[in-house]
Amino acid sequence: MIKHVVxxxxxxxxxxxxxxxxxxxxxxxxTSLVGVxxxxxxLEVGAKQAASPAxxxxxxxxxxxKTWADLQAYAVHPEHQKVVTFAKQVVSGRxxxxxxx
Length: 101
Description:
Blueprint: E1 2-10, E2 13-14, E3 17-18, H1 19-31, E4 42-47, E5 59-65, H2 68-76, H3 78-90, E6 91-100
Antiparallel strand pairs: 1-5, 1-6, 2-3, 4-5
Helix pairs in contact: 1-3
């Protein structure tokens, strides 16, 4: 199995919306990929809670795939690319790691 973990920080304002509005839209876009993009075995999205330290990332995505090929297919899938396009407009930072377990 392959685990793909990504964390993002968001701009305070972007695309005419607040940070929180963009986080809600973004997390909704990510969860909507389940059942649409083949190969996703698990998709979990979490947004930072108010009690979290200010320097924590705003959103985390944890996904699992059976193979590296499934992860690559996810990466280039048109519906995932819509999420990527939106992220590029509203995100200020990103960190990611992929590993086999």
